[in-house]
Design brief:
Keywords: Cytoplasm, Kinase, Phosphotransferase system, Plasmid, Sugar transport, Transferase, Transport. Helices cover 38% and strands 24% of the residues. By secondary structure, it is α/β, with parallel strands linked by helices. It has one domain (2-151). A hairpin with a 5-residue loop joins strand 6 (113-114) and strand 7 (120-121). Helix 6 runs parallel beside helix 7 (123-134). It is globular. The two termini are 29 Å apart.
Length: 156
């Protein structure tokens, strides 16, 4: 049961580990990130930083797409975390029906425009976001569960 899909360039950190897992009753975190899937040190670090009572899976986008039927069949309250808009877009296109995506943190880079304190999108990321919006997905910006939820759909 997917409770939350989040884009955050930091992947798993204090806000995810403490605020989001508690507020959503998360039992499993799936990180879908091509770079992390190839980096044994990063994978080990993430496994060490997860809450003891939460299961963690790490996949590349292609590995996750191969496992879509298993992901859809999960009974655990699940949070899926991506580090970037492109990989989120690619997975969601293959996955199908997703009601909403939380944009939690996307760092500032050259050519990116500011959409909130923590969300900076390049023109390509805006386009991929528009495509997800056109799929009927509610895109919203919210760093922590107690913060105000702000619509990204209205800004792109």
């Amino acid at each position: 049961m997917i409770k939350l899909i989040r884009i955050d360039h930091r992947l798993m950190h204090g806000q995810v580990v403490f605020a989001w897992t508690k507020s959503q009753g998360i039992e499993r975190i799936i990180i879908i990130d091509n770079a992390t899937a190839k980096d044994d040190f990063k994978k080990m670090s993430l496994k060490l930083s997860k809450p003891a009572d939460v299961k963690l899976s790490l996949f590349s986008v292609d590995q996750a797409i191969e496992r879509i039927s298993k992901i859809k069949a999960l009974k655990d309250n699940t949070m899926i975390i991506f580090s970037n808009v492109k990989e989120t877009h690619d997975f969601v296109q293959a996955f199908g029906s997703v009601p909403e995506i939380n944009y939690g943190g996307i760092q500032d880079r050259p050519g990116a425009s500011r959409f909130s304190n923590a969300i900076f999108l390049t023109p390509d990321e805006v386009q991929w976001s528009k495509e997800m919006k056109d799929m009927g997905i509610n895109l919203y910006m919210q760093q922590i569960p107690t913060a105000k939820r702000e619509s990204l759909n209205a800004k792109i």
